[in-house]
UniProtKB/TrEMBL annotation:
Transmembrane segments: 128-153, 173-195, 215-232, 244-265, 277-298, 318-337, 349-373
InterPro entries for this protein: DUF2306_membrane
Domain of life: Bacteria
Protein name as annotated: DUF2306 domain-containing protein
Keywords per UniProt: Membrane, Transmembrane, Transmembrane helix
Length: 376
């Protein structure tokens, strides 16, 4: 039995005029199609329409039976609230439509709910990690201001040498100025970067976001360049491998800042946000080094994999590169799972972020108690 062609707009057929005697192959194809629709819409690629179906294929179902209307509202309401409420996108071609089997709607409903739950869990786990990280960075910034800024105001810059090799060198004003610029800018960057990543602040205060972003990019570049200078020309603990890792971190900071600026100037907001996230993690490399080191010490109940007196060893050489490469790798995995991953991958990423939040929190607590608070 062929579907009756109704007198309605060109693209769209009310359910009540469609035939329900579809072949098994068509039903299977339609079910698979709707499963894909559910997956793609839940991934966030269906704003405005259901998945990637054109709006011209959507027609409000005003003439269908209560049962069919329930199916239509159930599918579209689950997938898109106000965007798709009351619409049924079941067109196989622009000129012919068919009634979608109930199994297809169940597949869409199950896929949509599963993906929505996974996306929500990933969002909560990421938010937890972000809050823990920001709290730890604020404590670190307060430690920098209290130790270095306090000693500078009191005129006792030599106290820097208690926690930094060659922090203050008599007769080297240029090097001392670079040290001051590095540590104080680092404290400001910790506070400024966190504000840039708050979505509500970006939406409600766009002017502040732009000016704070300009300051953040400039301060990040200053911190990266002065950090490289201090490693090679002022002297630092550790071996050459650690110095290479720290220098590469500074280069990555400058590169991420330049690319974030280039993308926003070009009008590519999505790419700008991705590079801003990479910059946030790269700038926090020295903070991740300290938190990771303290977590490692707490886990092993003492130094393991390095000599505490010379501050050299395989673990510290690994940490010099992992302090920024590991967070960047996790970010790329997160971006992939959020954009293209299914429910299983998003749940897995949510567990990873939850574990990282716990590990970061433990490292922050140990670093605060053993490294930062005693000098504040």
């Amino acid at each position: 039995m062929k579907p009756i062609r109704p007198k309605t707009p060109r693209y769209g057929v009310p359910l009540s005029t469609c035939s329900s005697q579809d072949s098994d192959s068509v039903k299977m194809a339609t079910t698979a199609h709707w499963r894909a629709v559910g997956r793609r819409f839940a991934a966030g690629r269906g704003r405005g329409v259901v998945a990637d179906i054109e709006p011209r294929y959507l027609q409000r179902d005003r003439h269908s039976s209560p049962r069919n209307r329930h199916w239509s509202h159930g599918c579209a309401g689950r997938l898109g609230r106000e965007r798709g409420r009351g619409y049924l996108a079941a067109s196989i071609t622009p000129w012919r439509s068919m009634m979608v089997p109930s199994s297809a709607f169940l597949a869409v409903r199950g896929a949509g709910i599963a993906h929505a739950s996974a996306a929500r869990a990933l969002r909560w786990a990421t938010t937890l990690w972000f809050l823990v990280t920001v709290a730890g960075q604020l404590v670190f910034a307060a430690y920098i201001v209290a130790l270095y800024g306090g000693a500078l105001l009191r005129g006792h810059s030599g106290q820097w040498n208690t926690v930094m090799t060659h922090g203050h060198v008599d007769g080297d004003p240029a090097g001392n100025a670079a040290t001051i610029a590095h540590v104080l800018v680092a404290a400001l960057v910790m506070c400024s970067g966190a504000l840039q990543l708050v979505p509500r602040l970006r939406a409600r205060a766009p002017a502040f976001h732009r000016w704070n972003g300009r300051f953040y990019l400039g301060a990040a570049v200053v911190a990266g360049v002065t950090g490289i200078y201090m490693v090679w020309w002022r002297g630092a603990v550790g071996d050459v491998v650690q110095h290479l890792g720290t220098s590469l971190n500074g280069v990555v900071v400058v590169a991420c800042a330049a690319l974030a600026l280039q993308r926003i100037v070009a009008g590519d907001v999505a790419a700008h946000r991705r590079w801003a996230l990479r910059l946030f993690l790269a700038v926090g490399g020295v903070w991740f080094f300290r938190v990771g080191l303290m977590f490692w010490l707490a886990l092993n109940r003492g130094p393991a994999g390095f000599d505490a007196d010379t501050f050299r060893g395989p673990f510290l050489s690994f940490l010099a590169f992992a302090q920024f490469l590991l967070p960047l790798a996790v970010l790329e995995l997160y971006l992939y799972c959020r954009a293209r991953g299914g429910a299983f991958r998003q749940w897995g990423m949510a567990f990873v972020m939850s574990g990282l939040a716990l590990a970061t929190g433990a490292g922050v607590v140990v670093a605060t108690a053993g490294m930062w608070l005693p000098h504040m």
